[in-house]
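Recall that a protein's primary structure is simply its ordered list of amino acids. Everything else, from secondary elements to tertiary packing, is in principle encoded there. The following example makes that idea concrete.
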Amino acid sequence: MRALVTGAAGFIGSHLVEHLLGSGHEVVALDDLSTGSPDNLRGVADDPALAFHRGSVLDAELVDDLVTGVGTVFHLAAAVGAFVVRDRTVEGIRVNVHGTDTVLEAARRHGARLLVASSSEIYGKNTKVGLREDDDRVVGSPLMHRWSYSEAKALDESLVAASVEAFGMHGVIARLFNTVGPRQTGQYGMVVPRFVGQALAGDPLTVFGTGEQIRCFCHVLDVVPALVALAACDEASGRAVNIGRSEPITIAGLAARVIERTGSSSSIVRRTYEEIYGRGYEDLQRRVPDCGLAERLLGFRPARDLDDVIDSVVADQLGRRAAVTSA
């Protein structure tokens, strides 16, 4: 097939591009490089089946042109990360809502299949163990920037579901739970690469809040094939599907595991949310997915565990340090 990947130079997007090219597909890549990096695509930059375009998903004319002749659109472009949500709230809402609308409309006009990447942020403060796709959202005030990303992604999902119903197009939603792996940066608030960077430097690992928050982490190399399968799944059209791993760990436990895996002498320190994000920030105490639907529809079963996730991030960061040293 010929596919368009938005957010192609980002963490997940670059792995998806590599996977598609490795499977013999042609890829049209779009990224504005606001948080993505050309370095993420360095390994495939010379592949004749890849056409990279620097631009925004808000550029309707460009998006329409790129969707022409494409069979499947993977829409991953978004403003992501707690620090981005905090510092660029307005921009984030615009990109996450208007960008999705622009890409969706182009896919509809050209009859392309569409996969939109959503987020476990959808569930908000719902602390149920084993969150299912039809569980209620529990979110705070829309006036708090903390919830702007969740609200924007919820609207994205509504747009996809309504468009499938109204126009008969093929559109699916992937709700991603804490995807981690090589190329992910801690610069925007992602916890595993941030902890790994601190551990490798011998710095204290900084845990925000109590450290008792529970999360689950899934390797990007398990997630990417699921995205491709989900986009091709007719039964999934108009639906949201959880993609993640259901192996819970507290953030304090994660910090200790990173120290163990790196052999670091780092300590663990705690800082309040107010120190990091300012007043009024709310965190989510527990987020554990039920991925039974993905298993039924796609045969999805992550092969890599948390140690594999951490080790891959360690190897990636050590490799980058070695490349800088030898340059």
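The domain at 2-179+218-244+288-302 is CATH 3.40.50.720 (Rossmann fold). Residues 89-110 form the longest helix (22 residues).
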